[in-house]
Every structure is written in C-alpha cells, then in structure tokens.
Design goal:
Layout: H1 3-17, H2 23-36, H3 50-61, H4 67-74, H5 78-81, H6 86-92, H7 95-109, H8 117-131, H9 134-149, H10 156-176, H11 180-194, H12 196-208, H13 210-230, E1 235-241, H14 244-253, E2 265-271, H15 274-287, E3 289-290, E4 296-297, E5 310-315, E6 321-328, H16 329-337, H17 339-348, H18 359-364, H19 373-381, E7 388-392, E8 398-402, H20 407-414, H21 416-420, E9 422-427, E10 430-432, E11 444-448, H22 458-462, H23 466-479, H24 481-498, H25 503-507, H26 512-519, H27 524-533, H28 538-562, E12 584-586, E13 594-596, E14 608-612, E15 618-622, H29 630-633, E16 640-645, E17 653-662, H30 667-677, E18 681-689, E19 694-703, H31 706-717, E20 722-726
Parallel strand pairs: 2-6, 13-15
Antiparallel strand pairs: 1-2, 3-5, 4-5, 5-6, 7-8, 9-10, 9-11, 12-16, 14-15, 14-16, 17-19, 17-20, 18-19
Helix pairs in contact: 1-3, 2-4, 3-4, 3-9, 4-7, 6-7, 7-9, 8-10, 9-11, 10-11, 11-12, 12-14, 16-17, 20-23, 23-27, 24-27, 24-28, 26-28
Bound molecules: manganese (II) ion (MN).
C-alpha cells in the first residue's frame, strides 16, 4: 500500500463513523507531518510517515476518536523528533492539538527501568496523571500498539525492554480503560518477545489443532443459533479461541501443560436488550450443563471500568467446557473500546467533551481488577491525583510525594542522610531553588556534600510533607543541642520578660522543681533544648509557669510590705500551715470536702467565701455571688466561712462565660478562634438566638486562674459584634 493509499484508507475509516469530521484539517495535519518527517526512516527502512499514519489508523479504527485526536495522532512525533515546536502546531492547527501532541511527547520521554510491582503501579498512575486529557493516553496507547506490531525490526534488547514496559504499563492501562481488544493484542505481542518459546508452543499447538477447534466452534455456535432462533430471540453468536497470552497465563497460574488446559474456547452472544441477556442465559443453561461457581453477573454489578456482561462456563457435549459471555450491543461496544466508546458517545452529543467529564477515568486507576462495587464507590470519593505528585529519581524510581512538594521533600523521602547533606537540587537537569514546586514526571536529582552544614530552619516552612519536617526537626534536636539550648534560653527569657516575670524566681532552687513539673521537663536545659529545636515553645513554657510565678511574686510583695522600715518590725507569727483541698484553704478546717458552686464557678484570684453545706462539705462561692449576698446569709451566719486560695491550685478550674452579641455569620467561628488563640480548653458551647437578632452564647471552659480568665474575656470583647462578656452568677 502506498502512503497515499494508506492516507485514503484513514479518511475512509474516519468517514465511516464520523462523516462530519474536519477532513481539510486532517489532510493538512497529514501533509504537515509528512513534510516534517521528510527524509526520516523507520528501522524497517520505510519512510517515517508510515508510523504516524498507522497510529492515526488505530485511533480511528479501534477507538473511533474525534477529528482533533486524528490530527494529533498524525502529528504525535513532530514536536519530539522534528524541528516543529508547540507554537508551530498551535498556530497551524489549534492550541488543543498542540497540547495533545505535547502530552504524548512527554509520555514518550519517560524512561522506564525494570521495576518491582509497586513501582509499576506508580508509573501507571503517573502516566494517567500526566495525561490530563484522556485522549493523550489513548493516542499514546495506539502509538505503543503500532510500535509493538513492528517490533521485529528492533534489537533483541530493545524488544525485551519495550515488551516488558508494554506488559506492565500499557496493557494494564488499556484494561482499566476498558479497551479489551487493544489489551489482548498488546499482551500477545509482548509475550512473543518476553517468552518466545512459550509463545511459539501455544501458537504451534493452536495452529495444528485449528481444523479440529474450528469444527467445534462451528458446531457449538450452530447449536446455540438454532435454539435461539426457535425462540425468536434476536441475536448474534460467535465463538473464538482464547488469545495466546490468556492461555499462557492459565498454564502459568495453574501450573499446567498446554494439554491440561481445556478451557480454551469462549462464545459471545450479543442481543438488543438486558432482558434478552437473561433469556439467553436460561437457554444456554438449558442446552449445556453449567459448571457451578462460574456464573458471574456483571450486568447487575458492573466492573469498575464500566464492563457489563453475563459470564457462565458450561460443559459442552464432547466434554469440553467453554465460556459464554452474554451482553447487549451497547455493552459490547464499551467492552471492546472502553473509554473511547464513552468518548465517542459524548462526541455525538454537543461538541468536544471536556477532561472534567473524564475525571472518573483517572479514579479508575485506583481500582484493581475484580474490585467489587463497594470498593469502587469508595475510590470514587478519593481523588488521589489532586493531592499527589509523581517524580523520578535519576535512576528511574518513582517517588510519590504530596502535591506542592519541593526538592527538600524529595531529598528526605529518599533518606534523611540525603536531606541533611543536601547542598543543591536539579530538576530535569537544571538547578532549581529549594522551594521549587515539583511536577509530575520531573526527574529530580539532589546534590549532596560531606561538608554540608545541614538543614536550615527555613526548610521546615518550605517542606510540604510531615515526613521531611519531622526529619529536619530530628536533626536540629540531635545535631545542634548547644545552639538549641542557647536559642531556647534566650527566647524563654524574652517571653518571661514580656510577661513581667523574673528569671530569678524561675531559677530559685525552691521554685524550680514545681515549675519544671508544670512543663514536664526534667531540667531547664532540656526545656531550652526543646524550645530551640521547635518541639516546644517559649510561649507555652511561660504560660504554664505563669500561675506559679505570679503567686511567688505576690508573696514577695507581701513580704516586702511587712518589712516596711517606717513601721517597727512586727514578728510575723508563723502561719498555721493549713493544707488545701483543690487549692482551697478553709480557715480552721483541715481535710474537709471542698466543692465549687455551680452558680458562680470561682477561679483562683477571685474573692471567695465558703458555705458549710449539709453533708457535702464546704461549697465555695465568689464573694460577689448573689447566693453569698449578706441578705442571703441571714439566719445562718454561722455556716459561712472565710476561705482563701492556697499555693497549690489545680491546673485548671471549670467556669462559665456568657457572651451577648449581635447575631451574624461566622460568629461561632470567631469565638472559637479567640478561644484557641488563648489556649483555652472548651468543654461546652451553647448558643441561642433571641427574637431581636441577638445571640447569647454560654461557654463552659477550664481556666487556670483569674488572669487567664481576664485575658480570655478581653479577647472575646474584641470580636466584632460582641456587646457583653460576663461571668454568670446566682
Ligand atoms: Mn510514535
């Protein structure tokens, strides 16, 4: 066939399914590609244009794609292999076609090496992730199919390598996109080079038995035909011998010789309606004895790739089992051409489909063969490609990183030693900055040096993966202890000064053990080190120590007051060491049960009074609680006691705040932001709207003391729309 004849065949094929195709553009694409590839030869010695023409023929014949795809298939090697550029193609044809060609070229540039299964799965995902437009992968698969068909001209080494790639990457992708015919052909062609002896054995055997097998196929087909005609079921039935790779796999999996594989035949019955599918099934099971456990209803439950059919295996009259697949014509088209069939249906609708409509195709990749319906639903919810990026190491391993990942993430994903000694990074052979965002298919190389200074603190902000961040933190923790301690100490001191507290009180040998307990560190040095490497913050340290330190400084002030020089020093009688209960000292009573009143929820720092309840110990109220008001005390003065806060108050006390505000959107959000910014533990939040457009919000929180309480109330007051912040009592 001359090149002109081949081109005419292409036009004829396209016209047969798409008479409205843009034949002027298709011809222009052919002529442009022919000019670009002029003088180039294939390994077979033929002019290069034979190849793009053949790929376009596959795209038309096997996949029945739109005009743009045919043009892109004709042009698919011009950017990669000729001086033509993306701009040229965009200008002469269209930006979309240029993108399709560029997409195919990108996939072509990917280098594979022999890999373990997990790597292969990543590669398949990467290919789809890079394709963006599903037509790119469809053209790429067609390109591969033609290259496999003409593989005989390549060196044995290249044959093996390409066949392995095809078997591991392109056949599974074709399967998951539902393109059975292409998948079979890719598998058979690959097998031919991967195991020539096994392949030859099967082919020879099938050929030697051809007459026998053909007779069986015809006999059985006629039997089914007759019966279905009797019942007036509109249908088409045909039989085939299973394809060589599927026989090969059976031998391999079941460890059987070719003679022992008897399940070699498959029949297919095509009908018009789903109802007829089940009618035919009944007829088949009536003629032949079904083999138990082999019936599968993929109509009721379709496969993740959209495949629908009824499958059953029955025993033939001569004791030969065979499989029967029953489906409608429409199911058949989708089974044979897969996503391409969907694509075509869309094309017949209004204009070109958008890639958005094909999101599901990408998700399909998640589904392993035979995944059931439930898993399918699950995987639909997970858009794995939105938050992942796939990049290569220089020797072809795929690294899977979170989207937005940088060379820092990459380096630490390889090994923490690589990250720690990183001095530079290259992406696709060009030096990049450490905050460079990696893209699918990038080849990333990390330059390391023994004299590297190690990570910098900025890296923690640049890194996208928690793995990298935690490895960087580890390094600072271990390698920079001295610096961490110095840095941690200075920020702690600063923070302390900021809060108006004294370092002397911290280091005081009497106070220190209490303070360290509050922050859960054994020594100050340990705490400084933690602050230094970022495992703890100076703010947290000070806020946890604050209560204790404030109490100490108040005590100092009190002591200073008592030794005022103007007054004669009065010996202070040793105060009876009263033990406190929950931080409360009840005058004159040790070890008594203390509870905090629910009406006014006092916290340390509040003026308080105690009331002896009947049987529940002492109930502590705020002095300003209406329930403790003098008029309420009438008649039971004797039961009111003086109580004070002790030195060993609890870490926190439950209390209540009421907030009155103008109701608006995001109010609760702002309130909770204020609470979390003050490190407030919230145990309850109750909001009700009043008829006049106000909201009353009751917050149940836990606070350490009155100071924290005040800070929280101030913060709440600053929120826009907040009118009143109060502590309810009474
Ligand atoms: Mn090609």
């Amino acid at each position: 066939m001359t090149i002109q004849e081949q081109y005419e065949l292409l036009e004829k094929t396209v016209r047969s399914y798409n008479p409205a195709a843009d034949f002027d553009h298709i011809r222009a694409a052919f002529e442009y590609a022919d000019r670009c590839h002029d003088g180039q030869k294939r390994k077979s010695g033929e002019p290069y244009i034979i190849h793009p023409l053949a790929v376009a023929q596959i795209v038309a014949e096997e996949l029945k794609l739109d005009s743009e795809s045919i043009e892109a298939a004709l042009l698919h090697d011009v950017i990669e292999d000729t001086p033509a550029t993306h701009e040229d193609v965009a200008r002469l044809f269209s930006p979309t076609i240029a993108d399709l060609v560029e997409g195919v070229s990108k996939l072509t540039r990917i280098q594979y090496a022999t890999k373990e299964d997990e790597q292969m799965e990543n590669l398949r995902k990467m290919l789809i992730a890079m394709s963006k437009d599903i037509r790119v992968i469809l053209i790429k698969v067609s390109d591969r199919l033609h290259n496999m068909r003409t593989m005989e001209y390549q060196s044995p080494e290249k044959q093996k390598q390409k066949s392995l790639e095809t078997m591991e990457i392109y056949a599974p992708i074709s399967h998951r996109l539902g393109m059975q015919r292409i998948k079979w052909e890719l598998e058979d062609l690959s097998l031919k080079y991967l195991d020539p002896v096994g392949y030859e054995e099967i082919i020879t055997r099938l050929e030697s038995k051809k007459a026998e097998y053909d007779a069986f196929l015809l006999r059985t087909q006629t039997q089914m035909d007759d019966r279905l005609n009797e019942l007036a079921i509109e249908h088409m039935v045909y039989g085939r011998i299973k394809h060589p790779y599927s026989i090969y796999r059976k031998m391999f999996n079941q460890n059987k010789s070719l003679d022992e594989i008897f399940d070699l035949f498959a029949f297919r019955v095509l009908v018009d309606t789903v109802g007829d599918c089940y009618n035919v099934l009944g007829v088949i099971h009536d003629i032949y004895k079904p083999i138990p456990g082999r019936f599968k209803d993929y109509i009721g439950t379709e496969k993740p790739n959209g495949y629908q059919s009824l499958h059953t295996t029955v025993m033939g009259p001569d004791g030969l089992p065979f499989e029967v697949q029953i489906r409608t014509w429409k199911m058949h088209e989708i089974a044979e051409y897969g996503v391409a069939a969907h694509w075509k249906y869309k094309q017949h609708g209004q204009g070109a489909g958008t890639e958005g409509k094909y999101e599901w195709v990408r998700r399909l990749l998640e589904n392993q063969e035979g995944a059931d319906a439930e898993e399918y639903i699950h995987s639909l919810k997970v858009d794995m490609f939105a938050d992942e990026v796939f990049v290569f190491t220089p020797n072809g391993d795929v690294q899977n990183l979170p989207a937005g990942a940088t060379p820092i993430d990459f380096a630490y994903a390889i090994h923490s030693a690589v990250g720690n000694s990183m001095v530079g990074a290259k992406v696709n052979n060009r030096i990049v900055t450490f905050d460079h965002i990696l893209k699918n298919g990038d080849i990333v190389e990390i330059m390391t040096s023994k004299s590297a200074k190690g990570p910098s603190r900025d890296w923690m902000k640049i890194a996208k993966s928690s793995e990298a961040r935690s490895k960087i933190r580890q390094w600072f923790k271990k390698e920079k202890r001295e610096e961490n301690i110095a840095g941690g100490r200075s920020s702690f001191e600063q923070e302390l000064k900021h809060a108006g507290l004294s370092m002397k009180d911290v280091t005081d040998s009497e106070n220190l053990p209490h303070l360290l307990k509050k922050v859960s560190y054994g020594t100050l040095e340990e705490m400084y080190a933690a602050i230094g490497y970022g495992g703890f913050t100076a703010q947290k340290a000070v806020s946890r120590m604050k209560g204790e330190l404030l109490r100490i400084s108040r005590q100092h002030q009190a002591e200073e007051l008592t030794v005022k020089p103007e007054e004669p020093p009065i010996p202070v009688p040793p105060r009876p060491m009263s033990k406190s209960e929950q931080g409360i000292i009840v005058e004159g009573l040790d070890n008594c049960l203390v509870k905090f009143s629910r009406c006014c929820t006092p916290v340390p720092g509040d003026e308080i009074v105690g009331f002896i309840t009947r049987g529940y110990g002492v109930s502590v109220h705020r002095a300003d609680c209406p329930n403790a008001a003098p008029e309420r005390r009438a008649g039971q003065e004797g039961r009111w006691l003086r109580v004070t806060w002790g030195s060993d108050t609890n870490d926190s006390y439950p209390t209540t705040i009421d907030v009155v505000c103008k109701d608006r959107m995001h109010l609760i959000l702002d309130i909770s932001t204020a609470l979390s910014s003050t490190n407030t533990f919230v145990s309850g939040l109750n909001s009700r709207s009043t008829e006049d457009g106000f909201a009353v919000i009751r917050l149940e929180i836990r606070v350490r003391d009155g100071a924290q309480m005040k800070a929280i109330m101030n913060k709440l007051h600053q929120i826009s729309g907040v009118l009143q912040v109060t502590r309810p009592a009474g």
